[in-house]
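Many introductory courses stop at the sequence. We go one step further.
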Amino acid sequence: MSNKILAYGEAMVEFNQSISQPRNYLEGFGGDTSNFAIAAARQGADTAYISAVGDDHFGQNLLELWRAEQVATEHVSVVADGSTGIYFVTHDEAGHHFHYRRAGSAASRYTPQQLPLDAIAGARVLHLSGISLAISESACDSGLAAMAHARRHGVLTSLDTNLRLRLWPLEHAREKMVEAFKLCDICLPSWEDVSMLTGLEDRDAIVDQLLAYGVKLVAFKLGSEGCYVATPDERRMVAPYPVQALDATGAGDCFGGAFVAELVAGRDPFSAARYANVAAALSTTGYGAVEPIPFRRKVEAALTAA
């Protein structure tokens, strides 16, 4: 069986406004599951992405990014009449603001018939997120079908909650995410997301609920507090790695990619979480979602020095 980690979702091209020259925008990349795949690849994991991009300049840029990052692209469809999602980041006195242009994108038109079923059946882990399910009904159907197919073939499924209420209303999100939780082996929730999805405010009560759905491993991301790792048999806080954070964009995605890469490499969940805490912390010491994701050698050096 392949060691490959497959991630499913939508990647986008980012245009970030220059603070010193407000009419200029710097091109970059975003997309939670894409960030996850790149983070896993930088830790040495064998990764591939499942998605669709438009047959346009931005789609080509994303394909070039993944190839440069050693994320396999054979399961990324290029849609002749589709567009690649883009978003803009603007800055003012109130902070930074996101403006998305993703409606009708190639990834949002993804259907279950496009899924690479053989590749999913031969993987070690299939990863997706709440955003993967939220961008459209067909993308949601595809994600849930991929999880069900993975489960039928003994492939672990990983799910980051990543709740975005601008993409779907809370009640609909709750309904579909419960379906996903019931197909999930490794859950990577963030506090605000999962408390809204479950309606619960107690950390252990939330973990109890996730385990009751059948989740086998929960890595509860708590930002600067570290993370709370739970299995049916044991629960443990895993200490944070202190850094001078500059930009937390994509840190949760980096955590997830590093965590799952370590699990696939045979680490126990608590060791994997310690490693992922360091990787995610280091990713906050630069700007943007992709550029500051650390490679394995940097994470290992930080662990050795800690």
